[in-house]
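Objective 1b: paired records.
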Amino acid sequence: MFELEFMKNAFMAGAIISVLCPFIGLFLVLRRHSMIGDTLSHSSFAGVAIGLVIGVNPLITTFLFTTLCALIIEFLRGYYKKYAELVMSIVLTLSLGIAIVLISSGKASTSVNSFLFGSILTVTKEDILLILATGIISLLILLFIFNKLLYVTFDEEGAKVAGINVKRINYLFTIIISATISMSIRIMGILVISSIIVVPVATAIQLEKNFKKTLLLSILFGFIDIILGLVISYYIDSAPGGAIAITSVITLLVVLILKRFLKK
């Protein structure tokens, strides 16, 4: 298995994704914004459709489109402060409408299945370089704004009083979410990207550690889920997205059972 080029590419991409997805996922969960990840992951379908129609690498067009959607969400949140779910519905409706129109037109040159469900066969060296570059830049930005983002996450009003440019931090964070979702498509697939963003975090939270330990545990669980999911998908010849999603939920259940058993 490991001597195959496409599996090496898949594991490399998976390793990068396993760090960034739980990283942003923990902040999304603590801010009660986990639905933003779900909305942007489904909105990325339109970015893929645009890339397939115009003949550009779908990872690039997906990043550009999901970034636009993220900026729209952040902008509209100011107008619907008490009804944040409306913003998600508006963006999701627009994105899926665009995707359906483009895909149903028959102009897409490739099957969309690999983007919907993920694929270990379609990850190229070009994709790896793009994912690596995006991942490094996103991680560096996250580390640079980490303390401010942490402050904003727990006390947005207090952060404003302290002189932190909350709007700028929020916009930067939403762009990083877009980048992370865009580069996860090849492995996870559009339909289940949100699972690797949220479920490893949900698993780590059950261990009731402090923030930094929870963050590290989220990344560890994300790595385990993705690697096991890729191995399982190889041996049963299935799309990796589904295998990774199921693995992540099983990991959560195992932790819950062990926690209950140890308490007794």
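Objective 1b, second protein:
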Amino acid sequence: MFIIQSMTHATVLIVITVYVLLFLSLKRNPLYPFHAAGVFVQELFTNRKFMLHLLGIVVILFFNKIEITLENSMKQHSDFTPSVFGLEGDFVAVFQRLFENDLLTSFLTFFYVVVFPAVMIASIGIYAYQRNFKLFYAVCYALMINYMIAIPFYLFFPVTEVHAFNPNVKFLMLDAFPTFENEYRPLSDLDNCFPSLHTSISVTMAMIALKSKNGFWKVFAPACAAIIIFSIFYLGVHWLTDMAAGTVLGLLAARIALRLSEGKTLFVGSRVGVKKRNMDSKW
């Protein structure tokens, strides 16, 4: 079984995976991933709009960290996990028993811990290198929207991960990443479960990738989203309800982000109203 030894080990694997994804996406030239990094740095220092969008992602990730601190300090803490369990029962436990295998555990842990963040980073690198700023901005908007909608749920609608509530579910993540609870857990509380951000962000990246002209990325990003969704059940992390909410959030975030990146209004009615006012002004 392949074992992730620590977060340092995971970080090294993420860097290598980003390089491989850029290599496969950018004409398969071993130098192109470095060119992509160079273009990214150049745009960061010469393109103010580019820099501000990246800053927006940093800010929302900072607020995500604050949410964890704030939640831990809240005196009244509701728990909606029993309601979710009553709704879907042992679905995840049955799902696990059907597929449990050491090789699959290693593979899915790698996707959950390593490939998931690598896809976000590679998406930014690909669109920046190709100067497809519409999709680059869409990724930035979508990540911010995903977190902005999810964080209030984590504060006021806490749902505990399946393995921590249902004794019939194993936390298979620990088999392939033994230090997960000590090193990865500070990034996300045990009850930051509904909606599943692993699902929503993966779906979002897939939907935006389908708008690109990169043949490899249009296939890989959706395939990765499917594997991530499979992994959240198999590893014993999320409920079916989390996945359903995450899918809706991912689709919504992608749609809004793409419209914003194209300079379109969010609602057709508002566009009609603007057009009508413009026509009225002529008279």
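The first helix runs from residue 7 to 25. The two ends are 74 Å apart (CA to CA).
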